[in-house]
TrEMBL record:
PANTHER family on file: 4-HYDROXYBENZOATE SOLANESYLTRANSFERASE, PROTOHEME IX FARNESYLTRANSFERASE, MITOCHONDRIAL
Example of a GO MF term: protoheme IX farnesyltransferase activity
Membrane topology of the entry: Multi-pass membrane protein
Lineage: Bacteria, Pseudomonadati, Pseudomonadota, Alphaproteobacteria, Acetobacterales
Membrane-spanning segments: 37-53, 59-82, 108-126, 132-150, 157-176, 182-207, 228-248, 254-275, 295-314
Organism: Commensalibacter oyaizuii
Subcellular location: Cell membrane
Family: Belongs to the UbiA prenyltransferase family. Protoheme IX farnesyltransferase subfamily.
Something else known: Carbon 2 of the heme B porphyrin ring is defined according to the Fischer nomenclature.
Gene that this polypeptide is encoded by: cyoE
Descriptive protein name: Protoheme IX farnesyltransferase
Amino acid sequence: MSQSISDEVVGSKRIRFDPALVGSDLRDWFILLKPRVISLVVFTGVVGIILAPGHVNPFIALVSILCICLASGGAGAINMWYDRDIDQIMQRTITRPLPAGRLRPSDALIYGIGVSVLSVVLMFLATNILTAFILAFSIFFYSVIYTIWLKRSTPQNIVIGGAAGAFPPLIGWTSVTGTLDLFPVILFSIIFLWTPPHFWSLALYACKDYGKAGIPMLPVVKGARHTRWQILIYTIILAIVSLLPVYFGYTSYIYTIAAILLNLGFIYMAIKVLLEKQTLEGLSLNNDKAARHSFRYSLIYLFFLFFALIIDHFV
């Protein structure tokens, strides 16, 4: 006898689930892990492993990378579980598996917790307790401190919550050395300061979505003009901090040149965002074109900045 179709309320919307179809597409389980986010997170963790002093056991390195990947995915799944009510309001997230009714919330939560626990246990068995602790704390920080607490309560959610995505270089480094050092802390700081101008650029052109969902992103609470200034200020601070590896002698001319060029490009983008014309309602006349370009450039910026660290390390 087949199971009947059932309804479940998600936020303010009633979603119909067909037991014969829910969870049947493996792509939905993969999407739940936020693969686009994982790629950059894992890459910065790999950089931490490569830059760490001492011998890197290839097997341990692969397991560490897998654990960072699983941890990021597990936290992403928990994030999607908790945000399912606002995801079905926002245009850019309405097709995700939960608001679309392709996965049940309870299954997504169990899946996210299971993947997260697996990542921490594997990391502990393969490396050391310090690395496993930082990995576990990064999951807790993103899932609880950012997603459940900060995201819906303060326009500074991204500023504080930016730490969640900044842990991978620390995790990669400690998986090799078992100890912390100034260098990985600087790498943590770079990602931490990169996050606000990166996400605020997105928030500028997704402002209506965040407003409908009741998320107090900076453009929603303080307006576009204030946000544009904050993007420029944080980009300048980021440019200064990104040169700390040069100041402390961790890198040579290759990283120095790359960092200077990338920072000039990011500052240029931030200035374009600041100068973009606006209407009286605070919305751009050209649909926040500069903000969209800045958001895309920020992804290129972080990738090539950390890639320059690898090149500099081997030359």
